[in-house]
Automatic annotation (TrEMBL), chain A:
SUPFAM superfamilies: CO dehydrogenase flavoprotein C-terminal domain-like, FAD-binding/transporter-associated domain-like. It comes from Pseudodonghicola xiamenensis. GO terms for molecular function: FAD binding; oxidoreductase activity. This is Carbon monoxide dehydrogenase. Gene3D superfamilies: 3.30.465.10, CO dehydrogenase flavoprotein, C-terminal domain, Uridine Diphospho-n-acetylenolpyruvylglucosamine Reductase, domain 2. Residues 1-167 form the FAD-binding PCMH-type domain. InterPro entries: CO_DH_flav_C, CO_DH_flav_C_dom_sf, Diverse_Substr_Oxidored, FAD-bd_PCMH, FAD-bd_PCMH-like_sf, FAD-bd_PCMH_sub1, FAD-bd_PCMH_sub2, Mopterin_DH_FAD-bd.
From TrEMBL, chain B:
GO terms for molecular function: 2 iron, 2 sulfur cluster binding; metal ion binding; oxidoreductase activity. This is Carbon monoxide dehydrogenase. The keyword tRNA-binding does not apply. CDD domains: fer2. Keywords: 2Fe-2S, Iron, Iron-sulfur, Metal-binding, Oxidoreductase. Residues 2-78 form the 2Fe-2S ferredoxin-type domain. PANTHER family: OXIDOREDUCTASE WITH IRON-SULFUR SUBUNIT (PTHR44379). It comes from the Bacteria. Pfam families: Fer2 (PF00111), Fer2_2 (PF01799). Coiled coil: none annotated.
Length: 263, 161
């Protein structure tokens, strides 16, 4: 890792100021960024830790909305929303491993937008709102492709607001070495309709499977997906699975998620 | 260089580190606490697991400066006050929960974190909790037995997988 200047502000205002420096980068729990820096794929001059900012930590639940501070670790989310949004709790409680969940944060995951990360699927399927240091961004506008988001330089994910669905489920087919999703599908049923978000599969990162949403909004059962197929075009193909395999898994995991919702 | 201060196994420790100094490097190279191992250096293997403010973390994937002011527990602080092995360590010895021993510090620290959260875990819960700890000798079976025994449960009955 190249040397950098480390700063750990205790307020959001100080963090925003620190991120104004040349080549500055925000650090959440570091579970992706530190390995990336070790490989010298990232080399910020200034690293601004967000873990000391109390106003960005914690979970509040009310009026059908769950608000999670951007610097809240996965392990805390898993425990805090177990009653209010069990599918989200289950997702958070199955990211990486226990030690990773004690450090990694929701804001860090969403800012990084790894194409195989779990949280982007939850945020997109829930129609969440990403709250940043200067605006609010709808999940539909936030995710803009692999490792790409609507965030601008120096913009911090301060919180994420999830509308609580009637029922939801996340099914992850794990890549067994990394435990990232080979394909993960989050299905969430709201009064306005069903939303289906897929991670791990596409070269474009997390995406909504709109044909499945339409079919499931008419009939919420695995059978409603029978006639649908996902094209392998644009799917990730690598040593862990071909594009065709991932395309197939999208449908399989969606069916399993729906079955889990109604079972 | 920046001064860093943390309580390690109950003792207040100070040192000078760079921004990029990892917690595991500080523990091993500056404090001489070489019980915490670096296996993969990519946060996969868990040989470097220590507790920071009571939570298991991978010390190869945390900066030393992030632990400034924290309470850190390492394998060196696990023995009982009289120097005898604690319940988990003793169970690892009794059930031969190690082969080469390289992963053992991380296994013991993860086991300690698990039993604090869940004093009577099932075999499945133990195996799930150890997902981030890799034993390249594939000694998992006896490790799971040791943790079952350390939690006061019958360990003899579990079948090999």
């Amino acid at each position: 890792m190249y040397e950098f200047e480390f700063v750990k502000p205790t307020t959001l205002a100080d963090a925003i100021a620190a991120l104004g420096a040349e080549e500055a980068q925000a650090l959440g729990g570091g579970q992706t960024l530190i390995p990336t820096m070790k490989q010298r794929l990232a080399a910020p001059a200034v690293l601004v830790s967000l873990t000391g900012i109390e106003e960005m930590k914690g979970v509040s639940i009310g009026d059908g909305i769950i608000t999670i501070g951007g610097a809240t670790p996965h392990a805390v989310v898993a425990e805090a929303v177990a009653g209010a949004y069990p599918a989200l709790a289950a997702l958070a409680g199955n990211i990486g491993d226990p030690a990773v969940r004690n450090r990694g944060t929701i804001g860090g995951s969403l800012a990084n937008n790894d194409p195989s990360a779990c949280y982007p699927a939850a945020a997109l399927a829930s129609g969440a709102t990403v709250v940043t240091s200067n605006r609010e961004i709808a999940a539909d506008d936030y995710f803009q492709g692999m490792f790409t988001t609507a965030l601008e330089d120096g913009e911090i994910v301060t919180a994420v607001r999830f509308p609580v669905p009637e029922v939801a489920s996340y099914r992850k087919f794990e890549q067994p070495a990394s435990r990232f999703a080979l394909v993960g599908v989050f299905v969430a049923k709201y009064p306005e309709g069903v939303r289906v978000a897929v991670t791990g599969a596409s070269e474009e990162g997390v995406f909504r499977w709109t044909e499945a949403e339409a079919a499931l909004s008419v009939e919420f059962s695995p059978d409603a997906l029978e006639g649908l197929n996902v094209s392998p075009e644009g799917m990730i193909g690598d040593l862990h699975g071909t594009a065709e395999y991932r395309a197939h898994l999208v449908k399989v995991m969606t069916k399993r998620a729906v079955a889990a919702c109604i079972g | 260089m920046t001064e860093v201060t943390m309580t390690v196994n109950g003792k207040l420790m100070r040192g000078e580190v760079e921004g990029r100094t990892l917690l595991v490097s500080f523990l091993r190279d500056q404090l001489g606490l070489t019980g915490t191992h670096v296996g993969c250096d990519t946060s996969q293997c868990g040989a470097c697991v220590v507790h920071v403010d009571g939570k298991a973390v991978k010390s190869c994937t945390m900066l030393a400066l992030e632990a400034d002011g924290a309470e850190v527990a390492t394998i060196e602080g696990q023995a009982d006050a009289d120097g005898s092995l604690n319940v988990i360590q003793q169970a690892f010895q009794d059930h031969h929960g190690l082969q080469c021993g390289f992963c053992t510090p991380g296994m013991v620290m993860s086991a300690a974190a698990l039993l604090k959260e869940n004093p009577k875990p099932t075999e499945d819960e133990i195996r799930h909790y150890l997902e981030g700890n890799i034993c390249r000798c594939t000694g998992y079976h006896n490790i799971v037995k040791a943790i079952l025994a350390a939690s006061g449960q019958e360990a003899a009955a579990i079948a090999a997988e």
